[in-house]
């Protein structure tokens, strides 16, 4: 699914246009963000693609949802 990752005043945020959903990223598997899982406040876990550490935000990427608490 397409996901836009951006930096806000409160930290990182993920927006899923198809679901019209924007949630803060509350947990990051890799400190440089890319190539690992992130957890959104709503419980969704997304696998982000491998990108260079210095990738500029905001960016839209193809992520894979692996679970949620719902």
UniProtKB/TrEMBL annotation:
The lineage of its organism: Bacteria, Pseudomonadati, Pseudomonadota, Alphaproteobacteria, Hyphomicrobiales. GO terms for biological process: nitrogen fixation. This is Nitrogen fixation protein NifT. It comes from Mesorhizobium amorphae CCNWGS0123. NCBIfam families: nifT_nitrog. Transmembrane segments: none annotated. It comes from the Bacteria.
